[in-house]
Design brief:
mainly beta, Acetoacetate decarboxylase-like
Length: 255
């Protein structure tokens, strides 16, 4: 059993798109020996995201915590990541593979997963409440990289029937780097998951949504991608653990 040690953490909010994109293009983004494993199962993610093969979290980080208390780079930043669930053919292991990211923090390039690209990020968010229990949110997020860009525009009513507060007692979500699956990070998350749209569950509190991609990611997002779900995580607290170098199996990297 791998022994884990604390690495870092963030306090943030996230708006996450779950999409069904071109599986052939996505497979090419995965390392050799891994195959796509779209979301399924009876847990909240499996039911609300069923059929999605890529998730795109648009993140606003409010604070960063490091193992030793010192922080390099920005304490507050915006970023957007691209992650696909996949299964290793040889072992059957299921993991989320982190295969690309745009970040406004130059110190986070190439980042923990060795796939980060610097981008100028423009973001806006407004809240409007005129009636009890009904808060309307409008947000926009644009990440402008040297070789591509991604943008999100979204209007929705927060809340609804599917608001889930989850707290993990132990690290329970495994992320590996698609660039090198030996780079592994385990997440322990405390967050409120507000599912504002889920086609599998026939939920839709979204009145407007546009998602546009150009340049280096247009092989995956060619305009034919399908939005499966939209999830708002506010607040979102994440603690990350990595294999302890002193006891980890040979070849496992601590990032």
């Amino acid at each position: 059993m791998t022994v884990l040690s604390y690495s870092d953490g963030i306090a943030a909010s996230r708006t996450m798109l779950a999409l069904e994109a071109d599986p052939t293009a996505l497979e090419k983004r995965l390392p050799s020996g891994w195959k796509l494993a779209p979301y399924t199962g009876e847990d909240p993610r499996g039911t609300s995201l069923r059929g999605a093969n890529v998730i795109v979290p648009f993140c606003e980080v409010y604070a960063v915590r490091s193992r030793d208390g010192g922080v390099e780079g920005l304490q507050q930043l915006s970023c957007v990541a691209f992650v696909s669930r996949a299964r290793e053919r040889a072992t059957g292991e299921l993991a989320d593979l982190h295969w690309f990211a745009y970040t406004e923090d130059p110190a986070d390039v190439p980042g923990k997963f060795h796939d980060g690209v610097h981008a100028r990020i423009i973001r806006s968010q407004t809240f409007n409440k005129e009636q009890q229990g009904e808060t309307c949110v409008r947000e926009a997020f644009d990440a402008l990289g040297e070789d591509g860009d991604v943008s999100l525009s979204l209007d929705y009513v927060q809340g609804g029937d599917l608001v889930i507060w989850t707290t993990a007692a132990e690290p329970n979500t495994c992320l590996r780097a698609a660039s090198d699956p030996q780079i592994v990070r385990w997440y322990r998350e405390d967050h409120v998951m507000n599912v504002i749209r889920s086609d599998p569950l026939s939920i839709n509190r979204v009145s407007h949504l546009t998602f546009d991609v150009n340049g280096e990611l247009s092989d995956v997002f060619d305009g034919n991608q399908r939005v499966v779900a939209v999830v708002v995580q506010r607040p979102y607290i994440r603690h990350v653990f990595v294999p302890d170098r002193s006891v980890a199996a040979p070849g496992v990297q601590d990032e």
